Amino acid sequence: MENIGLIAGNNRFPFLVAEEIKKRGDRVVCIALKEEADPDLEKFCDKTFWLPLGKAQKIIDALKSETVKTVIMAGQVKHARIYSALNLDWRAIKLMGSLVNKKTDTILSAVAGEFEKDGMKLLPSHIYLTHLLAPKGLISGKKLNSDEQKEVEFGFKIAKGIAGFDIGQTVVVKDRSVLAVESIEGTDECIKRAYALGGENSVVIKVAKPNQDFRFDVPVIGVKTIGVLKENKVRAIAVEAGVTLILDKDEVVKKANESNVTIVGI
């Protein structure tokens, strides 16, 4: 039996990771980030430490106290919190001060380095959930017509471009025009903004970065995503197959079919 560290953000992702770790007979030592994690997560973990995002040394000390050697990050942490008044400890201050910029990749690569300094290996976030990766082809809803397929092809190139610059991983298009590009606000707000600007029947494209580091940044959709798509009258969402996690996949497909939202893996 091994103690696996789980650094948990928000939404369902950390719940599913914790369940899979326990199914395999290992213990879950959870660092539940106070600003993000769901209180119910504690029921799924063997040991839980509730710590603020900015307490880097306390997080590492807690994991070491449970002889954790491998760590997984799962669940969203809002990037905008970097610009809020976090109560950083000395280690976090030193780390942030060493960064050449505050792009997601830069910050999280530095965080991974801190774990490695203390003998802990950061695993890919989706290592326990590969069965939930999006397959290629139609996943839910009606097959895309030729015009909608062209929208996807148009949007895919643009999404890959912005992802390569670490801006965001989602674009919303309509009539071969970009309505919205995801940035620091996240996918849901990007979709809402697109509807406010361009109305119904848009197409959402979500991709991985060209050199995605899956230790801490995996494209994800879930039941909540389908609700946002329905509310904003999106025609379809195309996700990159083999790298995008569909959390609670059966429920997502059911909700998408009920909402007349097509999901396609590309």
Report the span from N to C terminus.
38 Å
Strand content: 15-25%
Largest sheet: 6 strands, mixed
Unreliable stretches covering 5 or more consecutive residues: none
What is the string of helix and strand elements? EHEEHEHHEEHEEHEEHEEHE
Explain what this protein looks like in three dimensions.
This protein has 266 residues and is of the alpha/beta class. It has eight helices and 13 strands.
Characteristic key phrases:
35% helix; 266 residues; 5-stranded parallel sheet; 13 strands; 6-stranded mixed sheet; 8 helices; alpha/beta
Task: Give the helix/strand layout.
Layout: E1 3-8, H1 13-23, E2 27-33, E3 47-51, H2 56-65, E4 70-74, H3 90-98, H4 104-117, E5 121-122, E6 137-140, H5 146-164, E7 170-174, E8 177-181, H6 187-198, E9 203-206, E10 220-221, H7 223-231, E11 236-239, E12 245-246, H8 249-258, E13 262-265
Parallel strand pairs: 1-2, 1-4, 2-3, 4-5, 9-11, 10-12, 11-13
Antiparallel strand pairs: 6-13, 7-8, 7-9
Quick gist of this model?
This protein is α/β, with parallel strands linked by helices and 266 residues long.
